[in-house]
Amino acid sequence: MIALPTRAGKPDATLAKAVDLARTVALEVAEPGDVGDHLGVRAEGERVVTHHFACLRAGYPGWYWSVTMTRAKRGKDLTVNEVVLLPGDEAIVAPAWVPYKERLQPGDLSPGDLLPVEDEDVRLVPTYLVGDDPLDPPMDGDARAQVRRVAEDLGLGRVRTLSREGIDMAAERWYAGPGGPEAPLAKSAPDSCWSCGFLVRINGSLGERFGVCANGNANDDGRVVTFDHGCGAHSEVKLARKQQPLPMPDHVFDTLTDDEYEPV
User: Fold this and answer.
1) How confident is the model at residue 130 (pLDDT cuts 50, 70, 90)?
2) Taking Cα atoms as reference points, which of 50, 102, 56, 99 lies closest to residue 78?
3) Where in the chain is the domain with CATH 3.10.450?
4) Across-strand partners of 162?
5) Mind giving me the DSSP string for 15-71?
6) CA angle 165, 208, 171 (to 5 degrees)
């Protein structure tokens, strides 16, 4: 059963009776077997109505054909405004379109792919602080070119660097990720990364809470971890006596020789 739009008023009687004409118009844009039963008529305005027909086209369950018609005041000639195929409440429709930058996930980039960063990306600020004041107007192309020239002259290397917003966004993402304290691996760890000898400290404000794991045997090797993260590969972890492997027994010394056997 398709839930159709509610009525906007009493439909024009002449237009409401034109079911056969509406079906004929629908068949002009659809295959003969695609148009099903008449589902009803809806008033769109004064002397404007829409007829609805069930859609029988394969792959379109829950859709319906919509034929909108009108006529002039005191006129007998009917005019078709549009014929469209519309989804009902239970119809299968494509998901809402999302810009590609919002669809991208870590690991989606392949060799050779490019992901340009917008000039006004809030995560970045000019390395040479021209236009860094929030009260300054946005820089135009000439101003950005000047920033690049100054950065090159001063030997800064990078035209832009992380803004305060960019640092905060990275910290929130890392803290909530698999290298944070809420990861299942961290909750069962014997100790935290803060006291691990494999933790490599980083500079800047992010170094107050984050480091990089350098244990080649750990799951987080080469990844950013929080100081309160942890895993079972901590540098100071020790096995309890009951967890240690059983010692191997001494080798058995075989004292038998062939001389002790009498030939038969």
Assistant:
1) very low
2) 50
3) 13-87
4) 124
5) HHTTHHHHHHHHHHHS-GGGEEEEEEEEEEETTEEEEEEEE--TT-TTEEEEEEEEE
6) 35
* CATH class of domain segment(s) 13-87: alpha beta
Token output for 32: 């003969």
**Cα angle, residue 121 at apex, residues 169 and 99 outer, rounded to 5°:** 90
179-190 pLDDT, tens per residue?
999 999 999 999
Contact between 234 and 250 (Cβ < 8 Å): no
φ/ψ of 42, rounded to 5, equals -135, 135
Rounded Cα distance between 29 and 24, Å, is: 9
Task: Show Cβ contacts of residue 188 under 8 Å, excluding neighbours closer than 6 positions.
Answer: 232
Question: Could you tell me the two tokens for 46?
Answer: 């004064």
Find the mean pLDDT for residues 115-123.
Answer: 85
DSSP states along 62-120: TEEEEEEEEE-TT---EEEEEEEEEE-TT---PPPP--HHHH--TT---TT---PPPTT
3-class DSSP state of 211: strand
Alpha carbon distance, N-terminus to C-terminus of the chain: 97
E strands, 129-257, in order: 160-162, 199-201, 210-213, 224-226
Residue indicated by tokens 């005191």: 74
pTM of the model: 0.54
